[in-house]
What we know:
Layout: E1 2-4, H1 7-18, E2 23-25, E3 32-36, H2 40-50, E4 59-61, H3 66-71, H4 77-86, E5 91-96, E6 111-115, H5 120-129, E7 133-134, H6 149-156, E8 162-165, E9 176-179, E10 185-188, H7 194-201, E11 205-206, H8 209-214, E12 229-232, H9 235-239, E13 247-250, E14 262-265, H10 272-287, E15 294-297, H11 304-316
Parallel strand pairs: 1-8, 2-8, 4-6, 5-9, 10-11, 12-15, 13-14, 13-15
Antiparallel strand pairs: 2-3, 3-7, 4-7, 5-6, 9-10
Helix pairs in contact: 1-5, 2-10, 10-11
The chain binds adenosine monophosphate and magnesium ion.
GO molecular function, one term: L-threonylcarbamoyladenylate synthase
Keywords: ATP-binding, Cytoplasm, Nucleotide-binding, Nucleotidyltransferase, Transferase, tRNA processing
Enzyme class: transferase
Amino acid sequence: MRVIANDENIKLAGSIIKKGGLVAFPTETVYGLGADALNPYAVAKIFEVKNRPKFDPLIVHISKFNWLEKLTEKIDEQALKLIEKFWPGPLTLVLPKSEIVPDIVTAGLKSVAIRMPSHPVALALIDSAETPISAPSANPFGYISPTTADHVEKQLGDKIDLILDGGKCPIGVESTVLSLLDEPTILRPGGLPIEEIEKVIGKVKIQTKSEKILSPGQLQTHYSPRTPVKIFSSIEEILDKRIENAGILLFKKYDFEVKAKHVEILSEKGDLVEAASNLFSALHRLDEAGVDVIYAQEVPEVGLGIAIMDRLRKASGKKIE
Length: 321
Ligand code: AMP
Ligand code: MG
């Protein structure tokens, strides 16, 4: 449903977000597809609706400064200067994440991207939802970012709970993403010119294409476990192996016990959205369980299963013989 972004409808949108639904809303950059950033199942639905073949970390949108402390581990002097100067506005900061940020929001990374948008509808929606809202652009994978409610309706209209129509987005390009994890580095140029940032904190690095591909250290935009991962398809394959010291990542629950050192079940009933919402936390737990190898079960490659398998293949490289 598409509605005009008046007070009453913003309230309705806020209640949809609170209940775990999806709302498209205007920001000064582009329309966002929002979900409660603290609800992993709601966030998994964003990936499903966008039909993304892979998981990317999402930007968390806040309307009040006190959320910044709750979502991050550390805010340094540079971050404070930039926030004072450019928030609310088209600047996203990547900072060390706190415990409360679900792994699916950050694609398993220990950092979180945060922004305070300046669009009054976006701010009112976040206030009304009383929770930070994670939102990528409200378009299906491979389509251009929407800058009107019309674009959103045409591309995603039947897949989301509500579209708040707040007219045309004034800036029309995405936010500038700046990592402050180490040396300040632009991860994505956008609505706030780099020169403006440099006036406040001095020269910043610009991430090059090759750095993006290599993803070294803190510039990493994806998480993979350090423990070797091997993919298997049927449960029988695993029962034939010596798995006392292995970790097992199961898609669904079986009516017999799998006796390994550590077992994680992505979704008891085999629901792909639930599986996606648990994927990164399950991988983290397996990685920390001190196992020699992680055997990860294939999931059906439809809907979110495509993104789940993309992540598992990146983590593994090959199937078990
Ligand atoms: P979009 O969701 O299309 O607005 O894009 C969000 C951008 O922020 C992408 O370029 C992400 O890779 C980047 N991003 C979000 N979170 C992080 C993070 N924790 N570390 C690095 N980059 C991030
Ligand atoms: Mg996008």
